[in-house]
Amino acid sequence: MITRRQALQLLGSAAGTALVMTSLPAFAQNVDPKDLAVQGPMPDVALGPADAKVTIIEYASLTCSHCANFHNTTYPELKKRYIDTGKVRFILREFPLDPLATAGFMLARCDGESKYYPITDLLFDQQKNWAFTDKPLDALRQMMRQAGFSQEKFDACLRDQKLYDAVSAVKNRGVEQFKVDSTPTFFINGQRHAGSMSIDELETIIKPMLGA
């Protein structure tokens, strides 16, 4: 397992660091929703009511292009049609595929729960402008200025050993307990679905669960 020091050293490398992807065959088994609902190393930041009929848990990496595609195309409609209307509860869990993604999640977490989705949304939306550049850490620093991060705050977040360990532990729990091996991986009421999905594909899954 990579250390925080090694991660920060790697953050200054070329964008190839951000291209690390997993290609292992997906595990087919589903997961008991009660097990998924148990709080892990960090509290989940959830959108939508706790008593929603459908809960979607996504394991994603901020440097995963398929994850960015989902968040930039499908997620806005999912939020509009189902999350904001109280029909679906949505949880994004950290599954960084490389040190740069780990840094992004640390920054999203270090400014409180209310900033988690605004920051992850920003990083997915602007992924090509920071994750795939010659100097990704500099680009990420510049990006975070849009979210109100000073140089001091940016550096302090990335030096937070406890936060680094927690983000890493969320991923490790996904691997060890739920057999997540690629991003994005979705658990919809415990049903496993790997890969980016369109809103139409999502609706074919969640509408029967909603009784629609």
Structure, described:
- This protein has one domain: 3-Layer(aba) Sandwich (Glutaredoxin).
- Helix content is about 50%, strand content about 10%.
- It has about 210 residues and is of the alpha+beta class.
- About 10% of the residues have low confidence.
- Strands 1-3-2-4-5 form a 5-stranded mixed β-sheet.
- The chain contains 10 helices and 5 strands, in the order ααββαβααααααββα.
How does the SSE layout of this entry go?
Layout: H1 4-11, H2 33-37, E1 46-47, E2 54-60, H3 65-83, E3 88-94, H4 99-109, H5 116-125, H6 127-130, H7 136-145, H8 151-158, H9 161-178, E4 185-188, E5 191-194, H10 199-210
Parallel strand pairs: 2-3
Antiparallel strand pairs: 1-3, 2-4, 4-5
Helix pairs in contact: 1-4, 4-5, 4-9
**Unreliable spans:** 12-28
Rough shape? globular
Termini gap? 45 Å
* H-E order: HHEEHEHHHHHHEEH
Total domain units = 1
Supply the CATH architecture: 3-Layer(aba) Sandwich
User: Strand order, biggest sheet?
Assistant: 1-3-2-4-5
Number of β-strand runs = 5
How many DSSP helices?
A: 10
The SS-based structural class is alpha+beta
Quick one: CATH superfamily? Glutaredoxin
| Percent helix range | 40-55%
Could you write a compact summary of the structure shown?
The protein is built from 10 helices and 5 strands. It has 212 residues and is α+β, with helices and mostly antiparallel strands. It has one domain: Glutaredoxin, CATH 3.40.30.10.
